[in-house]
Specification:
There is one protein chain. The protein has 180 residues and is mostly helical. The chain has one domain (10-156). It has four helices and three strands, in the order αββααβα. The chain has a three-stranded antiparallel beta sheet with strand order 1-2-3. Strand 1 (42-43) and strand 2 (48-54) form a beta hairpin. Helix 1 (2-36) packs across helix 3, helix 2 packs antiparallel against helix 3 (94-117) and helix 3 runs antiparallel to helix 4. The longest helix has 35 residues, at 2-36. It starts with a helix and ends in a 29-residue tail after the last helix. It is found in: Cell membrane. It is a multi-pass membrane protein. Pathway: Protein modification; lipoprotein biosynthesis (signal peptide cleavage). It catalyses: Release of signal peptides from bacterial membrane prolipoproteins. Hydrolyzes -Xaa-Yaa-Zaa-|-(S,diacylglyceryl)Cys-, in which Xaa is hydrophobic (preferably Leu), and Yaa (Ala or Ser) and Zaa (Gly or Ala) have small, neutral side chains. Residues 157-180 are annotated as: Disordered.
Length: 180
């Protein structure tokens, strides 16, 4: 049973490391955007780097709610996602663990960013979609990957690709003769 405990720890550490990495990348990008994009934008073709702030939740919905309510709702969602990932990590494959970490890290980065001044820093602008940030991208991508993995249950664990033993070819040896 020590293998199950090790697998659980390894899975949970992988999710936490992915979440911490994603949150660090996003919070660093937000800080850099506030400094570099304060008075300008950068045109990258289909994507522009342009500083914006979102006082609501997704697509600025709920922007008239009190900041404390929005922070509480988004923090509760992040805690629910973390609880699910904590429970699921021991059985999950590496892709699902990283996707779960991306969702958690994105959610936490947005909660941390919002807790400071009541709004989330956005900097990725397309012109045809609301301005967003890397945390949003990690969140959405992580959810899509997890949904796709769960649509194909045989792919959700590392053991799904391991060959199975065919016990019909060589039945296990026992001390008892077979009964007919």
């Amino acid at each position: 049973m020590a293998g199950a405990g090790t697998r659980a720890r390894t899975g949970r550490v992988a999710v936490l490391l992915a979440a911490a990495t994603v949150a660090a990348i996003d919070l660093t990008a937000k800080a850099a955007s506030e400094v570099r994009l304060a008075d300008s934008s950068v045109d990258l073709g289909l994507l522009q780097l342009q500083l914006a702030y979102n006082s609501g939740v997704a697509f600025s919905m709920g922007d008239r709610l009190p900041v404390g309510v929005i922070v509480a709702i988004t923090a509760a969602a992040a805690v629910a996602i973390m609880a699910y990932a904590w429970h699921r990590a021991p059985q999950a494959g590496w892709v699902e663990r990283i996707a779960g970490g991306a969702v958690i890290g994105g959610a936490l980065a947005n909660v941390v960013d919002r807790a400071g001044d009541g709004r989330v820093t956005d900097y990725l602008h397309t012109g045809w979609w609301p301005t967003f940030n890397l945390a949003d991208t990690f969140l959405v991508t992580g959810f899509i990957v997890i949904a796709l993995l769960h649509a194909r249950p045989e792919r959700t664990t590392d053991t799904a690709t391991a060959p199975t033993k065919d016990l019909t070819a060589n039945p296990p040896v026992t001390d008892h003769p077979p009964q007919t």
